[in-house]
Amino acid sequence: MKNFLFSVLITVFSSFTGESGLHHTDKLDEIFDIGTVQSLIIQKNGTVIAEKYRGRINGNLPVNIKSASKSVLSLLVGIAIEEGYLEGVHQTLGDFFPEYFEDKPDPVKESVTIKDLLTMRSGLETTSFMNYGRWVMSNNWVYFTLNQPLAGTPGEAMIYSTGTSHLLSAIITRASGMSTLEFGNRYLFRPMGIRIGGWDQDPQGYYMGGNNMAMSPLDLVKIGELMMNVGKYNGRQLVSREWILESVEIYTKSNFNPYHYGYMWWRKQSAGYEVFFAWGNGGQYIMILPELDTVISITSSLSTSNSRRYQREIFQFLGDVIIPAIKNHPG
């Protein structure tokens, strides 16, 4: 698997000098018929070839990317390891929350690793779905998550939970001595010219690990470009190549959809092409199609996203319309 990923991901180009704009792009406008979508940007070989918006949104306006934030957080974990703030994915919850486990010792919970958190295999009961409201209304999101009963064995089945990813934000802060936003600004966002438009914090001040981060559609493309170039942006290696490749390996699969999961990056095929993607509720996406040298960002309205039907419709549109348009582009 890693050999395939390496061969696909490193086949990228730093520039492209062909025509700008897709031919017959009116077909792409039909993505707005899905109902949730507000923006679509397609970049091929480093050049934006389609850029479409509906309503008041524009490419530089930060929007809530919901759980697509988790994929960004995964990059920050990799940087924290590369910079020496973390020893590696083998470190455990017991290493970072000793005061909690001193009061409530639990050898199984203490043994949960950073890798288990990244792959949503902590074994802890979810704080998402039916438990989400209780979690965000609690006075300590970290302790609420750690207080969850074990619903599975760490390292085995996937249990999707934003509380699990939030622990990673707290770990970055505790290990680095910086808030997760400060850390991200220093090592990732500022070097890429990315502005975080807003990001929720918990009662203790930890930035929300894996939800409610605001980024602009064009900045989402930058994150996709970083992934496409195996951690490099504008010639600078911001995230290690090894981390990017590890991040998109398959470690588990969701119980709720046909998607595979890496280090908080999703993966599936569309029209015969491998798609690595960040995904936020309501229709927030960063899609990377290495075989087509293409990055796509999609953002959607949260006020019209009550149904999860958009998932099927967006990927159907990707396969039926977007991928053929990319293949037909002269680049």
Report the sheet with the most strands, covering strand number, pairing sense and barrel closure. Answer: 8 strands, antiparallel
Query: In whole angstroms, how far apart are the ends?
Result: 28 Å
Give the overall shape. Answer: globular
**Low-pLDDT runs:** 1-20
CATH T-level fold name of the largest domain: Beta-lactamase
Name of the level-1 CATH class of the largest domain? Alpha Beta
What is the SS-derived class?
A: alpha+beta
Oligomer: single chain
- Count of domains: 2
Return the average pLDDT rounded to an integer.
91
Spatial strand sequence of the major β-sheet: 2-1-13-12-11-10-9-8
CATH homologous superfamily descriptor of the largest domain: DD-peptidase/beta-lactamase superfamily
How much of the sequence is in beta strands? 15-25%
Secondary structure blueprint with pairings:
Elements: H1 2-9, E1 37-44, E2 47-53, E3 63-64, H2 69-82, H3 93-96, H4 98-103, H5 107-110, H6 114-118, H7 132-136, H8 141-146, H9 162-176, H10 180-192, E4 198-199, E5 213-215, H11 217-228, E6 232-233, E7 236-237, H12 241-247, E8 252-253, E9 260-261, E10 266-270, E11 273-280, E12 284-289, E13 294-300, H13 309-328
Antiparallel strand pairs: 1-2, 1-13, 3-5, 4-5, 6-7, 8-9, 9-10, 10-11, 11-12, 12-13
Helix pairs in contact: 2-9
